[in-house]
Design brief:
Layout: E1 5-7, E2 16-18, H1 19-29, H2 36-49, H3 60-86, E3 93-94, E4 97-98, H4 103-108, H5 110-113, E5 129-136, E6 141-142, H6 164-180, E7 189-191, E8 194-196, H7 204-213, E9 229-231, E10 233-239, E11 244-250, H8 257-269, E12 277-281, H9 284-294, H10 299-302, E13 305-309, H11 311-314, H12 319-325, H13 344-360, H14 363-387, H15 392-436, H16 443-471, H17 486-494
Parallel strand pairs: 5-12, 12-13
Antiparallel strand pairs: 1-2, 3-4, 5-10, 6-9, 7-8, 10-11
Helix pairs in contact: 1-3, 2-3, 6-8, 15-16, 15-17
Length: 499
């Protein structure tokens, strides 16, 4: 080291690499996919062309890779040590109670977790932080053709990966919970031929429709077969500013829920017991249903967790589900729109640290951009309101009246159409009965009346079917019983808010 070289091994090294070369490689490999094999082959070929042939008995790749790995570990330790001196850790837990987000979270995103959460007001709908879950199936590792064990090299530095033992423990816990309550469907309450899972605001029929639309909801759908891949992908938990908080290495063929739940478990362990969290996930409705159905999360966590759907996938969900889970319709999310294996995990850790540091430098620009966007949208909305030349109080009253009465008006219109269909059907039946009983004097006049009555009946029936289909009810539904149905009122009134 005093000579500016780093040895490939602590005892009897056969290769020493210049520290400047290693630092260059470290800087390069956080910006592109590391490939020491290709780099060493290119170096050997270049040196050979210059007349310098390596006489080493061992392969250059093995020696250089070992030197590069441990140099990176040493550099990471040095960075962490300096960071600890500049920002000494502060006590976030007193008498067993966490008072503020952990140092880990503050280090990964100071904007989201840098200090004691402060609500803008006392509204229960406010969220202290917003996170998102997503899986990536491009980060795979193929099975070893000789079935020999392969592992990451030793990595004594801190990591964003959750230990495999914790992931397995969550998988076992979910299996146990599901086996304890095989008849849990009986606890869901029935309502007009449909059912609601306890704690859910969306009926099961709607959730089934959402599940059919997304492969992520099907845990058995194979995005990466375990016959060919030992590791099938990654699932990440990211903060509102797209900083990686934790990663899980996926080893199953489907996007199983225990990966998402172990990430959430880790998050809440690092947060105060009063912190409220908004979660955006492609199939957030399915995950929320499973948590309520099988009691997969403590009530203390569920009461502080608001499930939403990622904006990119929201319109693939059923409309009633969008009313509840779309981030634009869900209070608190605002304009949020967060959508070579031997070295794989170690490399990803280093690259994530690099991108975090790079993103920190742009946090001020991010805040300014979002603030400017909010002000511009507010200004456009106010200009549109002022152009109407109507006082604000009148607009608020009219808006409330439209939203409040929309359900009742729509129901009254459908009931009126049903009465019209019944009247037209009775008229057609009476005309046909007159014909059967030989009470028709003029057959031509009868044909004209019968055709007109059938036409009116057909038009009214078609209009009724369209209205019921738009409302989301079946022809067998007793509409009179829906007058006091809370879900129906929310469903129809929210249509006034559709964007």
């Amino acid at each position: 080291m005093e000579s500016g070289l780093f040895a490939c091994s602590p005892v009897a090294p056969t290769l020493a690499v210049d520290l400047h070369v290693l630092e260059f490689m470290r800087t390069l490999f956080v910006r592109l996919m590391p490939n020491t094999t290709a780099w060493c082959e290119a170096l050997e070929s270049f040196l050979d062309g210059q007349g310098y042939q390596l006489q080493s008995k061992d392969n250059l790749w093995w020696q250089f890779s070992n030197a590069y790995h441990w140099y990176t570990v040493l550099a990471t330790y040095a960075d962490d040590h300096i960071t600890g001196l500049v920002h000494p850790p502060q006590a976030s837990v007193q008498q067993g109670v966490r008072l503020q987000p952990s140092e880990y979270l503050c280090a990964h995103c100071p904007l989201c977790f840098g200090g004691v959460p402060q609500k803008a007001n006392t509204d229960q709908e406010d969220l202290d932080c917003i996170v998102c879950l997503d899986a990536c199936f491009t980060q795979k590792r193929t099975n070893n053709p000789r079935n020999s064990a392969t592992h990451d090299p030793p990595n004594p530095t801190s990591t964003v990966f959750i230990p495999e033992s914790e992931v397995k423990a969550m998988e076992v816990f979910i299996g146990k919970q599901q086996s304890l309550a095989p008849g849990h469907h009986d606890s869901s309450h029935q309502l007009q031929g449909d059912s609601f899972e306890d704690g859910m605001r969306v009926p099961m029929s709607v959730l089934d429709g959402c599940g059919d639309s997304f492969h992520a909801a099907d845990e058995n759908w194979k995005k990466a077969s375990t016959n060919f891949f030992a590791d099938t992908g990654l699932m990440a938990l990211l903060c509102h500013h797209d900083h990686v908080l934790w990663l899980v290495n996926m080893t199953s063929a489907g996007e199983k829920q225990h990966y998402a739940l172990v990430l959430l478990k880790y998050l809440f362990e690092h947060l105060p017991t009063t912190t409220t969290v908004g979660l955006l996930y492609d199939i957030g409705c399915q995950l929320e249903c499973s948590c309520h159905k099988w009691k997969l999360l403590d009530e203390g966590i569920l009461s502080r967790l608001k499930f939403g759907i990622s904006v990119f996938h929201a319109y693939g969900h059923q409309w009633p589900c969008q009313i509840v889970h779309h981030p634009r319709k869900c209070v608190g999310f605002g304009l949020s729109d967060v959508s070579g294996y031997h070295q794989r995990l170690f490399v990803l850790d280093n690259q994530i640290c690099h991108f975090d540091r790079k993103a920190f430098a742009a946090l001020g620009q991010w805040l300014n951009k979002k603030w400017t966007l909010c002000k511009s949208k507010k200004m456009l909305a106010l200009e549109s309101l002022h152009a109407l030349h109507i006082d604000m109080q009148t607009l608020r009253e009219e808006w409330a009246a439209q939203s409040k009465n929309k359900g009742a008006n729509l129901l009254a219109h459908i009931l009126s159409l049903e009465k019209s269909v019944q009247d037209y059907q009775s008229h057609v039946d009476q005309l046909e009965m007159d014909l059967v009983n030989y009470c028709v004097n003029d057959i031509i006049d009868f044909d004209l009346q019968h055709a007109a009555a059938k036409s009116l009946l057909s038009k009214a029936t078609k209009a009724l079917q369209q209205k019921k289909s738009a409302l989301g009810v079946s022809s067998q539904t007793d509409l009179y019983l829906l007058r006091n149905n809370k879900w129906f009122q929310t469903h129809t009134n929210a249509q006034a808010l559709k964007i």
